[in-house]
UniProtKB/TrEMBL annotation:
Organism: Lentilactobacillus parabuchneri
Annotated ranges, domain tRNA nucleotidyltransferase/poly(A) polymerase RNA and SrmB- binding: 169-225
Assembly behavior: Homodimer.
Binding locations of Mg(2+): D40, D42
EC number from the UniProt entry: 2.7.7.72
Keyword Ribosomal protein attributed: no
Domain Poly A polymerase head positions: 22-141
Gene3D superfamilies named among the record's database cross-references: 1.10.110.30, 1.10.246.80, 1.20.58.560, Beta Polymerase, domain 2 (3.30.460.10)
Catalytic activity: a tRNA with a 3' CCA end + 2 CTP + ATP = a tRNA with a 3' CCACCA end + 3 diphosphate; a tRNA precursor + 2 CTP + ATP = a tRNA with a 3' CCA end + 3 diphosphate
Taxonomic lineage from the root: Bacteria, Bacillati, Bacillota, Bacilli, Lactobacillales
UniProt KW keywords: ATP-binding, Magnesium, Metal-binding, Nucleotide-binding, Nucleotidyltransferase, RNA repair, RNA-binding, Transferase, tRNA processing
Encoding gene per record: cca
Positions annotated to bind CTP: G27, R30, R111, D154, R157, R160, R163
Protein name listed in UniProt: CCA-adding enzyme
Length: 394
């Protein structure tokens, strides 16, 4: 069993010694059985939150109203959640009411997919009440219970199904798939940020091609921002395997495929509530992608794009002849940032080349570009002479 579980065992043992049940649950159990790396260890218990808090010295109420208490243990935090059932779901996204219960079965029943509804006890016993192990063996994503009910309760589960299908390279079981097709429009009830997170994880999964195809086949693409307006382009993308490394690459590939301008990229990604830093990187990466396609990559463009986004563009475009020399061309640029210019604004003034004022910025911009383009060597004397010339010509 993985070290993450071993380290958390004393927590399970302590809860059990006090007469309650406690299990590892959720993604960490699934990923352990699939021999995949695990990130967060979730623990479920029959103890109520107040009872959990009595047992441990250091706890944080991270989600106490949902029954989650974080136990701090030697610098690691473990989320311990009381067995619960959920009811209500009037808004297709969150339960109106959670009820704490003492039964593991009731808790597993509210979980989304059979592969996510397994519990692992301290002694290593797996509790598989919904056929999750068999589904895992057959590489199947299947809703726990009636898929129609489950997607009606919480529409995000549809995107989660697609995400797991891509991450694990599993197939979605046919009734679950039909349920998604039938309820796809409910996705509009879900906060965009939550769809965003599942969609990006899906696009980064090993079987993103399948994930995209499922979105197209079930109509989910029509109920997330913008994608539904570009189905032909998406179908093209879903024709071949994708291998994207990060979120910037995901959006850049889409923006490039859709032929988006800067302004269109910005409005596309704002609709998806994407972070501004990511939007900027996508704009730079996509601009380089268009230039690669037209075989018009200048040194100035490489300089502006920067190493990280050049790598992003190369990853998206693929290891083709067009991209092979881009990194070495970048490495050979005389400067990588304006700070590396061998003259400063202060020095230009000190040397009496010009007075402080708006001209200064223009001159530095000119020198930066001329050095990058290889027109002026990057040393003090040449830069000073070029600045003098520039002023005389003006
Ligand atoms: P990841 O590896 O991405 O963390 P995960 O399966 O652990 O995947 P989490 O969002 O961390 O996903 O949720 C932990 C567990 O909680 C899930 O395995 C599942 O049992 C349950 N769960 C999470 N979200 C839902 C949901 N929307 N509906 C029902 N059960 C859910
Ligand atoms: Mg998890």
């Amino acid at each position: 069993i993985p070290t993450e579980f071993k380290e958390a065992l004393p927590i399970l043992q302590k809860i059990e010694a006090a007469g309650y049940e406690a299990y590892f649950v959720g993604g960490s159990v699934r990923d352990t059985i699939l021999k995949r790396p695990i990130h967060d260890v979730d623990i479920a218990t029959s103890a109520y939150p107040s009872e959990v808090k009595e047992l441990f010295k250091k706890t944080v109420d991270t989600g106490i109203e949902h029954g989650t208490v974080m136990i701090l243990d030697h610098g690691t935090g473990y989320e311990v959640t009381t067995f619960r059932t959920e009811s209500g779901y009037q808004d297709y996204r969150r339960p109106d009411k959670v009820t704490f219960v003492r039964s593991l079965k009731e808790d597993l029943k509210r979980r989304d997919f059979t592969i996510n509804a397994l519990a692992l006890s301290e002694s290593g016993q797996v509790f598989d009440l919904f056929g999750g192990l068999a589904d895992m063996q057959h590489h199947i994503i299947k809703a726990v219970g009636d898929p129609n009910e489950r997607f009606n309760e919480d529409a995000l589960r549809m995107m989660r199904a697609v995400r797991f299908a891509s991450q694990l390279d599993f197939q979605i079981e046919s009734e679950t798939l039909q349920g998604i097709a039938r309820h796809s429009r409910l996705l509009e009830k879900i906060a965009v940020e939550r769809c965003h997170s599942e969609f990006v994880k899906m696009m980064l999964g090993v079987a993103a091609q399948n994930g995209l195809n499922v979105m197209l086949d079930t109509g989910l693409d029509r109920h997330v921002p913008v994608l539904g307006e570009h189905e032909q382009a998406l179908k093209q993308l879903a024709n071949s395997p994708l291998s994207l490394q990060n979120e910037v690459q995901v959006w850049s590939l889409l923006a490039f495929t859709f032929g988006f301008s800067r302004g269109q990229i910005s409005s596309f990604l704002k609709k998806w509530k994407t972070a501004n830093k990511i939007i900027n990187d996508v704009i730079l990466t996509t601009e380089l992608l268009f230039a690669i396609k037209k075989q018009q990559v200048t040194n100035w463009l490489l300089y502006q794009t920067g190493a990280a986004n050049i790598t992003n563009a190369i990853d998206v475009f693929g290891p083709l002849p067009e991209t092979q020399t881009l990194m070495s061309r970048y490495a050979e640029l005389p400067i990588k940032t304006k700070k590396q210019l061998q003259i400063t604004g202060g020095q230009l003034i000190q040397q009496g080349v010009l007075q402080p004022g708006p001209e200064l910025g223009k001159i530095l911009d000119y020198l930066e570009r001329a050095v990058v383009d290889g027109q002026i060597p990057n040393n003090f004397d040449d830069l000073k002479a070029a600045a003098v010339n520039f002023l005389n010509e003006d």
